[in-house]
Amino acid sequence: MKYSVFSLFRHSLSGHKNWEPAWREPAPKAEYDIVIVGGGGHGLATAYYLAKEFGLRNVAVLEKGWLGSGNIGRNTTIIRSNYMLPGNNPFYELSMKLWESLEQDFNFNAMVSQRGVLNLCHSDPQRDAFARRGNAMRIDGVDAELLDAHAVREMYPFFDFDNPRFPIKGGLLQRRGGTVRHDAVAWGYARGADQHGVDIIQHCEVKGIKIEKGKAVGVETSRGFIRCKKLALATAGNSSETAAMAGLKLPVESHVLQAFVSEGLKPFIDGVVTFGAGHFYVSQSDKGGLVFGGDIDGYNSYARRGNLPMIEHVIEAGVAMIPALARVRVLRSWGGIMDMSMDGSPIIDKTPVGGLYLNTGWCYGGFKATPASGYCFAHLIARDEPKDVASHYRLDRFRRGYLIDEKGQGATPNLH
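Predicted structure:
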Protein backbone atom coordinates (compact mmCIF):
# COMPACT_ATOMS: atom_id res chain seq x y z
CA MET A 1 0.00 0.00 0.00
CA LYS A 2 1.35 3.40 -1.00
CA TYR A 3 0.82 6.16 1.52
CA SER A 4 -0.50 9.39 0.02
CA VAL A 5 -3.14 12.07 0.55
CA PHE A 6 -5.42 10.00 -1.69
CA SER A 7 -5.06 6.82 0.38
CA LEU A 8 -5.66 8.89 3.52
CA PHE A 9 -8.89 10.27 2.06
CA ARG A 10 -10.01 6.86 0.79
CA HIS A 11 -9.51 5.21 4.18
CA SER A 12 -11.22 8.07 5.98
CA LEU A 13 -14.45 6.97 4.26
CA SER A 14 -14.30 3.68 6.18
CA GLY A 15 -13.29 5.26 9.47
CA HIS A 16 -9.66 4.19 8.97
CA LYS A 17 -10.56 0.57 9.78
CA ASN A 18 -9.07 -1.10 6.70
CA TRP A 19 -5.42 -0.07 6.75
CA GLU A 20 -3.03 -2.93 6.04
CA PRO A 21 -0.29 -3.73 8.61
CA ALA A 22 2.93 -1.86 7.88
CA TRP A 23 4.84 -5.17 7.70
CA ARG A 24 4.14 -8.90 7.93
CA GLU A 25 4.80 -11.15 10.94
CA PRO A 26 6.28 -14.19 9.15
CA ALA A 27 7.48 -17.39 10.77
CA PRO A 28 11.21 -17.96 10.19
CA LYS A 29 12.13 -20.21 7.28
CA ALA A 30 14.68 -22.99 7.64
CA GLU A 31 17.22 -21.23 5.41
CA TYR A 32 17.95 -17.82 3.91
CA ASP A 33 20.61 -16.46 1.62
CA ILE A 34 21.38 -13.73 4.16
CA VAL A 35 20.52 -13.43 7.84
CA ILE A 36 20.97 -10.08 9.57
CA VAL A 37 21.18 -10.19 13.36
CA GLY A 38 19.77 -6.96 14.80
CA GLY A 39 16.50 -5.29 13.87
CA GLY A 40 17.56 -1.75 14.70
CA GLY A 41 18.09 1.08 12.25
CA HIS A 42 21.31 -0.30 10.75
CA GLY A 43 20.04 -3.85 10.38
CA LEU A 44 16.73 -2.79 8.82
CA ALA A 45 18.44 -0.29 6.51
CA THR A 46 20.86 -3.01 5.40
CA ALA A 47 17.98 -5.36 4.58
CA TYR A 48 16.14 -2.61 2.72
CA TYR A 49 19.10 -1.72 0.50
CA LEU A 50 20.03 -5.38 -0.06
CA ALA A 51 16.57 -5.93 -1.51
CA LYS A 52 16.01 -2.61 -3.25
CA GLU A 53 19.46 -1.79 -4.61
CA PHE A 54 21.05 -5.23 -5.01
CA GLY A 55 18.01 -7.45 -5.68
CA LEU A 56 18.75 -9.85 -2.79
CA ARG A 57 15.37 -10.63 -1.24
CA ASN A 58 15.80 -14.01 0.43
CA VAL A 59 16.82 -12.12 3.56
CA ALA A 60 15.78 -12.33 7.20
CA VAL A 61 16.24 -9.73 9.96
CA LEU A 62 16.27 -11.25 13.46
CA GLU A 63 15.36 -8.99 16.38
CA LYS A 64 15.34 -10.29 19.96
CA GLY A 65 12.84 -7.64 21.06
CA TRP A 66 10.46 -5.51 19.04
CA LEU A 67 11.36 -3.11 16.26
CA GLY A 68 12.55 0.16 17.72
CA SER A 69 13.34 -1.26 21.15
CA GLY A 70 17.10 -0.71 20.85
CA ASN A 71 19.26 2.33 20.14
CA ILE A 72 17.17 3.39 17.14
CA GLY A 73 14.48 4.39 19.64
CA ARG A 74 16.95 5.62 22.29
CA ASN A 75 18.77 8.62 20.84
CA THR A 76 18.48 12.37 20.47
CA THR A 77 17.47 12.23 16.77
CA ILE A 78 20.29 14.46 15.43
CA ILE A 79 21.61 14.17 11.87
CA ARG A 80 24.70 15.98 10.57
CA SER A 81 27.76 15.54 8.37
CA ASN A 82 30.15 18.05 9.95
CA TYR A 83 33.13 15.70 10.20
CA MET A 84 36.71 16.56 9.24
CA LEU A 85 38.81 13.45 8.51
CA PRO A 86 38.85 11.82 5.05
CA GLY A 87 37.68 8.50 6.47
CA ASN A 88 34.54 10.06 7.96
CA ASN A 89 33.48 13.14 6.02
CA PRO A 90 32.48 11.51 2.69
CA PHE A 91 30.67 8.73 4.53
CA TYR A 92 28.53 11.01 6.67
CA GLU A 93 27.84 13.29 3.71
CA LEU A 94 26.49 10.26 1.82
CA SER A 95 24.28 9.63 4.83
CA MET A 96 23.05 13.23 4.78
CA LYS A 97 22.18 13.00 1.09
CA LEU A 98 20.26 9.77 1.74
CA TRP A 99 18.40 11.47 4.61
CA GLU A 100 17.35 14.27 2.27
CA SER A 101 15.53 11.86 -0.07
CA LEU A 102 14.66 9.15 2.44
CA GLU A 103 10.95 9.81 2.93
CA GLN A 104 10.26 9.79 -0.80
CA ASP A 105 12.44 6.71 -1.19
CA PHE A 106 10.63 4.44 1.25
CA ASN A 107 7.26 6.29 1.22
CA PHE A 108 7.05 6.97 4.93
CA ASN A 109 6.95 10.18 6.96
CA ALA A 110 10.13 10.16 9.05
CA MET A 111 9.77 13.87 9.91
CA VAL A 112 13.16 14.86 8.47
CA SER A 113 13.74 18.44 9.67
CA GLN A 114 16.85 20.19 8.37
CA ARG A 115 16.78 22.93 10.99
CA GLY A 116 20.55 23.39 11.24
CA VAL A 117 23.27 22.22 13.62
CA LEU A 118 25.38 24.84 15.40
CA ASN A 119 28.57 23.98 17.32
CA LEU A 120 29.60 26.79 19.70
CA CYS A 121 33.22 27.80 20.30
CA HIS A 122 34.55 29.47 23.46
CA SER A 123 38.18 30.35 22.74
CA ASP A 124 40.42 31.51 19.93
CA PRO A 125 42.09 28.08 19.51
CA GLN A 126 38.69 26.41 19.36
CA ARG A 127 37.54 28.88 16.72
CA ASP A 128 40.69 28.08 14.71
CA ALA A 129 39.90 24.36 15.02
CA PHE A 130 36.35 24.99 13.78
CA ALA A 131 37.75 26.96 10.83
CA ARG A 132 39.92 23.98 9.91
CA ARG A 133 36.96 21.64 10.24
CA GLY A 134 34.75 23.91 8.15
CA ASN A 135 37.40 24.18 5.43
CA ALA A 136 37.79 20.39 5.36
CA MET A 137 34.03 20.04 5.02
CA ARG A 138 33.86 22.54 2.15
CA ILE A 139 36.72 20.81 0.33
CA ASP A 140 34.50 17.70 0.30
CA GLY A 141 31.50 19.72 -0.90
CA VAL A 142 29.79 19.85 2.50
CA ASP A 143 28.12 23.08 3.60
CA ALA A 144 29.73 24.91 6.54
CA GLU A 145 29.56 28.48 7.87
CA LEU A 146 31.87 29.99 10.48
CA LEU A 147 29.87 32.47 12.59
CA ASP A 148 31.11 35.20 14.91
CA ALA A 149 29.49 35.96 18.27
CA HIS A 150 27.22 38.61 16.75
CA ALA A 151 25.76 36.15 14.22
CA VAL A 152 25.18 33.57 16.95
CA ARG A 153 23.52 36.21 19.14
CA GLU A 154 21.08 37.03 16.35
CA MET A 155 20.05 33.37 16.24
CA TYR A 156 19.98 32.70 20.00
CA PRO A 157 19.98 35.93 22.06
CA PHE A 158 19.26 34.06 25.31
CA PHE A 159 22.64 32.26 25.43
CA ASP A 160 25.12 33.28 28.13
CA PHE A 161 27.63 34.98 25.85
CA ASP A 162 29.62 36.52 28.72
CA ASN A 163 29.97 33.43 30.87
CA PRO A 164 33.18 34.00 32.92
CA ARG A 165 34.51 30.49 32.18
CA PHE A 166 33.00 29.75 28.77
CA PRO A 167 32.28 32.95 26.81
CA ILE A 168 30.66 32.27 23.45
CA LYS A 169 32.89 33.59 20.66
CA GLY A 170 31.12 32.10 17.65
CA GLY A 171 30.31 28.76 16.14
CA LEU A 172 30.35 26.43 13.15
CA LEU A 173 26.96 26.05 11.45
CA GLN A 174 25.76 23.32 9.09
CA ARG A 175 22.33 24.39 7.88
CA ARG A 176 21.53 21.03 6.28
CA GLY A 177 21.84 19.24 9.62
CA GLY A 178 18.84 18.75 11.87
CA THR A 179 16.66 16.06 13.36
CA VAL A 180 14.58 13.05 12.29
CA ARG A 181 11.87 11.11 14.12
CA HIS A 182 13.98 8.16 15.28
CA ASP A 183 11.37 5.39 15.63
CA ALA A 184 9.77 6.40 12.32
CA VAL A 185 13.11 5.59 10.67
CA ALA A 186 12.85 2.03 11.98
CA TRP A 187 9.22 1.74 10.89
CA GLY A 188 9.92 3.17 7.44
CA TYR A 189 12.86 0.87 6.74
CA ALA A 190 10.96 -2.13 8.13
CA ARG A 191 7.97 -1.39 5.92
CA GLY A 192 10.18 -0.84 2.87
CA ALA A 193 12.19 -4.03 3.43
CA ASP A 194 9.01 -6.04 3.98
CA GLN A 195 7.53 -4.74 0.72
CA HIS A 196 10.63 -6.04 -1.08
CA GLY A 197 10.17 -9.53 0.37
CA VAL A 198 12.45 -9.41 3.42
CA ASP A 199 11.28 -11.43 6.45
CA ILE A 200 11.39 -9.34 9.64
CA ILE A 201 11.22 -11.69 12.60
CA GLN A 202 10.68 -10.10 15.99
CA HIS A 203 11.18 -11.75 19.40
CA CYS A 204 13.80 -14.04 17.92
CA GLU A 205 16.96 -14.01 20.03
CA VAL A 206 20.20 -15.42 18.64
CA LYS A 207 21.73 -17.91 21.08
CA GLY A 208 24.71 -19.10 19.06
CA ILE A 209 26.48 -19.06 15.69
CA LYS A 210 27.23 -22.33 13.95
CA ILE A 211 30.57 -22.52 12.15
CA GLU A 212 31.60 -25.33 9.82
CA LYS A 213 35.09 -25.47 8.29
CA GLY A 214 35.78 -21.86 9.24
CA LYS A 215 32.55 -20.53 7.76
CA ALA A 216 29.35 -19.25 9.45
CA VAL A 217 26.46 -21.40 8.24
CA GLY A 218 23.61 -20.45 10.53
CA VAL A 219 22.35 -19.27 13.91
CA GLU A 220 20.74 -20.97 16.85
CA THR A 221 17.78 -18.85 17.95
CA SER A 222 14.96 -18.90 20.46
CA ARG A 223 12.76 -19.96 17.53
CA GLY A 224 15.00 -22.74 16.24
CA PHE A 225 18.03 -23.11 13.99
CA ILE A 226 18.17 -20.93 10.87
CA ARG A 227 20.71 -21.77 8.18
CA CYS A 228 22.18 -19.08 5.93
CA LYS A 229 24.84 -18.51 3.29
CA LYS A 230 25.91 -15.17 4.71
CA LEU A 231 25.53 -13.85 8.25
CA ALA A 232 25.64 -10.14 9.14
CA LEU A 233 25.92 -8.75 12.66
CA ALA A 234 24.42 -5.30 13.36
CA THR A 235 23.87 -5.52 17.10
CA ALA A 236 25.27 -2.18 18.34
CA GLY A 237 26.07 -2.34 22.07
CA ASN A 238 25.74 -6.12 22.08
CA SER A 239 28.29 -6.60 19.29
CA SER A 240 30.94 -8.01 21.64
CA GLU A 241 28.53 -10.72 22.82
CA THR A 242 27.31 -11.73 19.37
CA ALA A 243 30.83 -11.72 17.90
CA ALA A 244 32.02 -13.89 20.79
CA MET A 245 29.56 -16.56 19.61
CA ALA A 246 31.82 -16.85 16.55
CA GLY A 247 35.01 -16.81 18.60
CA LEU A 248 35.86 -13.18 17.87
CA LYS A 249 37.11 -10.55 20.32
CA LEU A 250 36.33 -7.06 19.06
CA PRO A 251 38.12 -3.72 19.71
CA VAL A 252 34.83 -2.44 21.13
CA GLU A 253 33.53 -1.64 24.62
CA SER A 254 29.91 -1.24 25.72
CA HIS A 255 29.05 1.94 27.62
CA VAL A 256 25.76 3.50 28.67
CA LEU A 257 24.77 6.89 27.23
CA GLN A 258 21.92 8.84 28.78
CA ALA A 259 19.50 11.24 27.11
CA PHE A 260 16.79 13.46 28.52
CA VAL A 261 13.51 15.19 27.70
CA SER A 262 12.19 18.25 29.52
CA GLU A 263 8.64 19.37 30.12
CA GLY A 264 6.93 20.97 27.13
CA LEU A 265 7.86 24.59 26.45
CA LYS A 266 6.87 27.20 23.92
CA PRO A 267 9.20 27.14 20.88
CA PHE A 268 12.50 28.91 21.49
CA ILE A 269 15.27 26.66 20.07
CA ASP A 270 14.61 26.19 16.37
CA GLY A 271 17.79 24.24 15.58
CA VAL A 272 20.29 21.87 17.15
CA VAL A 273 22.98 23.45 19.33
CA THR A 274 26.05 21.86 20.91
CA PHE A 275 28.00 23.46 23.76
CA GLY A 276 31.66 23.47 22.79
CA ALA A 277 32.97 23.72 26.35
CA GLY A 278 31.39 20.40 27.28
CA HIS A 279 29.66 17.54 25.56
CA PHE A 280 26.10 18.93 25.63
CA TYR A 281 23.66 19.01 22.73
CA VAL A 282 20.04 20.14 22.63
CA SER A 283 17.10 20.56 20.28
CA GLN A 284 13.39 21.09 20.79
CA SER A 285 10.86 18.46 19.73
CA ASP A 286 7.56 19.14 18.00
CA LYS A 287 5.85 18.47 21.34
CA GLY A 288 7.81 21.28 22.96
CA GLY A 289 10.17 19.21 25.08
CA LEU A 290 13.88 19.88 25.03
CA VAL A 291 15.78 16.76 23.92
CA PHE A 292 19.35 16.80 25.20
CA GLY A 293 22.31 14.62 26.13
CA GLY A 294 26.04 14.56 26.79
CA ASP A 295 28.86 12.16 27.56
CA ILE A 296 28.84 8.43 28.14
CA ASP A 297 28.62 7.50 31.83
CA GLY A 298 32.22 6.24 31.81
CA TYR A 299 31.88 2.62 32.85
CA ASN A 300 31.19 -0.62 30.99
CA SER A 301 27.55 -1.66 31.19
CA TYR A 302 24.78 -3.50 29.39
CA ALA A 303 22.10 -1.73 31.45
CA ARG A 304 19.81 0.81 29.84
CA ARG A 305 20.03 3.17 32.78
CA GLY A 306 22.64 5.66 33.90
CA ASN A 307 23.86 7.30 37.09
CA LEU A 308 23.05 10.58 38.81
CA PRO A 309 26.53 12.21 38.55
CA MET A 310 26.31 12.19 34.75
CA ILE A 311 22.81 13.69 34.91
CA GLU A 312 24.24 16.53 37.00
CA HIS A 313 27.20 16.93 34.64
CA VAL A 314 25.00 17.20 31.53
CA ILE A 315 22.51 19.62 33.07
CA GLU A 316 25.33 21.81 34.44
CA ALA A 317 26.63 22.24 30.88
CA GLY A 318 23.15 23.10 29.65
CA VAL A 319 22.62 25.75 32.32
CA ALA A 320 26.07 27.24 31.59
CA MET A 321 24.97 27.72 27.99
CA ILE A 322 21.35 28.75 28.67
CA PRO A 323 20.85 30.00 32.25
CA ALA A 324 17.06 29.92 31.85
CA LEU A 325 17.22 26.10 31.74
CA ALA A 326 17.70 26.16 35.51
CA ARG A 327 13.94 26.69 35.83
CA VAL A 328 12.97 23.84 33.48
CA ARG A 329 11.93 20.46 34.84
CA VAL A 330 13.29 17.23 33.38
CA LEU A 331 10.41 14.97 32.42
CA ARG A 332 12.23 11.68 31.78
CA SER A 333 15.56 10.11 30.91
CA TRP A 334 16.71 6.88 29.32
CA GLY A 335 19.91 5.05 28.44
CA GLY A 336 21.24 3.30 25.38
CA ILE A 337 24.09 0.80 25.13
CA MET A 338 26.85 2.30 23.00
CA ASP A 339 29.35 0.20 21.06
CA MET A 340 32.41 2.39 21.61
CA SER A 341 35.34 1.57 19.31
CA MET A 342 38.90 2.32 20.34
CA ASP A 343 39.26 5.34 18.02
CA GLY A 344 35.66 6.61 18.07
CA SER A 345 34.93 5.58 14.46
CA PRO A 346 32.87 2.64 13.17
CA ILE A 347 33.69 -0.76 11.69
CA ILE A 348 32.04 -2.09 8.50
CA ASP A 349 34.01 -5.09 7.33
CA LYS A 350 34.26 -8.81 6.74
CA THR A 351 35.57 -10.86 9.64
CA PRO A 352 38.19 -13.65 9.70
CA VAL A 353 35.27 -16.09 9.84
CA GLY A 354 34.02 -16.93 6.36
CA GLY A 355 30.60 -15.58 5.47
CA LEU A 356 30.44 -13.41 8.60
CA TYR A 357 30.13 -9.62 8.25
CA LEU A 358 30.35 -6.96 10.95
CA ASN A 359 28.78 -3.55 11.49
CA THR A 360 29.68 -1.99 14.85
CA GLY A 361 31.63 0.69 16.75
CA TRP A 362 29.27 3.60 16.12
CA CYS A 363 29.93 5.36 19.42
CA TYR A 364 27.87 8.58 19.43
CA GLY A 365 27.29 8.60 15.67
CA GLY A 366 25.03 5.62 15.04
CA PHE A 367 21.71 7.31 14.35
CA LYS A 368 22.94 9.95 11.92
CA ALA A 369 24.80 7.23 10.01
CA THR A 370 21.79 4.92 9.59
CA PRO A 371 21.15 5.32 5.82
CA ALA A 372 24.81 5.26 4.76
CA SER A 373 25.62 2.44 7.17
CA GLY A 374 22.81 0.32 5.75
CA TYR A 375 23.76 1.09 2.16
CA CYS A 376 27.49 0.45 2.66
CA PHE A 377 26.90 -2.71 4.70
CA ALA A 378 24.53 -4.00 2.02
CA HIS A 379 27.17 -3.22 -0.64
CA LEU A 380 29.79 -5.16 1.34
CA ILE A 381 27.51 -8.19 1.82
CA ALA A 382 26.26 -8.25 -1.76
CA ARG A 383 29.58 -7.69 -3.55
CA ASP A 384 32.14 -8.80 -0.97
CA GLU A 385 34.00 -5.54 -1.29
CA PRO A 386 33.61 -2.26 0.61
CA LYS A 387 31.94 0.77 -0.89
CA ASP A 388 34.49 3.51 -1.50
CA VAL A 389 33.25 5.89 1.23
CA ALA A 390 33.42 3.10 3.83
CA SER A 391 36.79 1.67 2.81
CA HIS A 392 38.55 3.16 5.86
CA TYR A 393 36.28 1.33 8.34
CA ARG A 394 38.33 -1.86 8.40
CA LEU A 395 38.36 -4.19 11.37
CA ASP A 396 42.14 -4.60 11.22
CA ARG A 397 42.98 -0.88 11.22
CA PHE A 398 43.87 -1.01 14.92
CA ARG A 399 46.48 -3.70 14.29
CA ARG A 400 47.75 -1.92 11.18
CA GLY A 401 47.96 1.50 12.84
CA TYR A 402 45.43 3.27 10.57
CA LEU A 403 43.17 4.71 13.26
CA ILE A 404 40.51 7.33 12.45
CA ASP A 405 40.78 9.60 15.51
CA GLU A 406 38.08 12.16 14.76
CA LYS A 407 37.99 13.23 18.41
CA GLY A 408 40.79 11.11 19.84
CA GLN A 409 38.69 9.64 22.63
CA GLY A 410 37.05 6.36 21.61
CA ALA A 411 36.00 4.27 24.56
CA THR A 412 38.41 5.88 27.08
CA PRO A 413 36.23 7.47 29.78
CA ASN A 414 38.85 9.92 31.11
CA LEU A 415 39.03 11.60 27.69
CA HIS A 416 35.33 12.47 27.64
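Summary: The chain has a mean pLDDT of 95.
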